[in-house]
Amino acid sequence: MNLIENIREGLRSIISNRLRTILTSMIIAIGITSLVGILTAIDGLQSSVDNSFAGLGANTFDIQGPQLFRRFGGRAEKRVPPIDYHQAMTFKRRFEKGESVSVYATVTGAAQIKYASKKTNPNVQLTGVDDNFLAIKAFKLQSGRNFSPNDLTNSLNVTIIGSEIASTLFERNMNPLNKEINILGGKYKVIGVLDKKGGFSGGGEDRTVLVPLENARAMAANRTLTFDITGSVPSLSDAETAVGEARGLMRQIRRDPLGRQDSFEIRRADELAKDFEEITSYLRIGGFGIGFITLLGASIALMNIMLVSVTERTREIGIRKSLGATPKRIREQFLIEAIVICILGGLGGIVLGIGIGNVISRVVSPGDAVSFVVPWLWMGVGILVCVSVGLFSGIYPAFKASRLDPIEALRYE
């Protein structure tokens, strides 16, 4: 009996025991689903982050005031003051490497916006911005226009709202442009509506309202605002030089003494993406570990079923041996059966895993930036794991079957 005939015999045995094959394959499918599903979900989240940062570009950097206490030398901790309006505007005026610089400040993250009898939930982010903010932060206008120099200089009561705010306050057939909405007790005319962004932010950027920077300062009243700065350079090759110059200029503006650490933080956009990529690499290791444990349990169950199959087919093995089948051919048949069952279950698990993984990534990170992920690498790993599980689960039952004495096997009832 050659190898081809042995494969056919193994397939015939699988077909003749359909229910057992289906149940066994389902055990393997569950294990592969957990493995591929977790890894697909992680890849989907990574894709969402990559898409979110793609528009912002790697040649941008953010300058923010520190959020924590700092310790200088061996002295007691003291709070470092945030970047104020004067410092931010001085940087914008003096920074020469930048293609554009945007200064902005968040007034509140819990504003409630009203129009007529309708109002939003108190979870709207109200931000004061300049005319460079939309371009440098990769916001696109669905309709309307950006802030003009006249709006900013004269502190006009005009606003640009996010897509979620527009859909909440206005009917579908109503144009929000030139309508007056109530922002913290003041009337503001809508001059623009932002395009839906969604993505990894979970839709938070669609719940934003933008006003001119001077208006934001007036809204804050006696509260101290923290001003953030985002700079952009013409090309990626200039980014390192620009960040170095920005750090030196900001230290000069903030009057940081020599030998002390920066009283602010500078982060490039690509560094944020790299940080998340490092986090997802740890998540992948954890996901692979969880999937491996599940598959280990499935392989033990499969080995048990194959041992039962050997016991049930003892007379069949005796007949085949008496007709000239060698121990090698007997081992091949049982190994082929185990591997085929694993591959059938693996294919079903891969399909389920891809679907479940993409659903999870969309639930965790809703928005247009989340694309459907087909993890070819993990699909290949899944098939390889299936073959490995089949070999692991089938080798002992196959070895046991090949060592049966033909005379004793023929007497088995």
Folded structure, characterized:
With 413 residues, this protein is α+β, with helices and mostly antiparallel strands. It has two domains: 3-54 and 273-411, no CATH class; 60-268, no CATH class. It is built from 13 helices and 14 strands. The protein has helices at 3-16, 18-56, 85-94, 133-136, 149-153, 163-169, 213-220, 239-254, 269-312, 314-322, 327-364, 376-402, 406-411, and strands at residues 60-64, 69-70, 78-79, 100-111, 113-115, 118-119, 124-129, 141-144, 158-161, 180-183, 186-194, 208-212, 227-232, 265-268. Strands 1, 4, 5, 6, 7, 8, 9, 10, 11, 12, 13 and 14 form a twelve-stranded mixed β-sheet that branches. A two-stranded antiparallel sheet has the order 2-3. The two termini are 26 Å apart. The relative contact order is 0.20. Residues 68-74 have low confidence and may be disordered.
Quick recap of the structure?
The protein has helices at 3-16, 18-56, 85-94, 133-136, 149-153, 163-169, 213-220, 239-254, 269-312, 314-322, 327-364, 376-402, 406-411; strands spanning 60-64, 69-70, 78-79, 100-111, 113-115, 118-119, 124-129, 141-144, 158-161, 180-183, 186-194, 208-212, 227-232, 265-268. The protein has 413 residues and is α+β, with helices and mostly antiparallel strands.
How much helix, percentage-wise, in residues?
40-55%
Rg result: 32 Å
Count of individual helical segments: 13
**Poorly predicted ranges (pLDDT <50, ≥5 residues)?**
68-74
Order of helices and strands: HHEEEHEEEEHEHEHEEEHEHEHHHHH
The biggest beta sheet reads:
12 strands, mixed
Distance between the termini: 26 Å
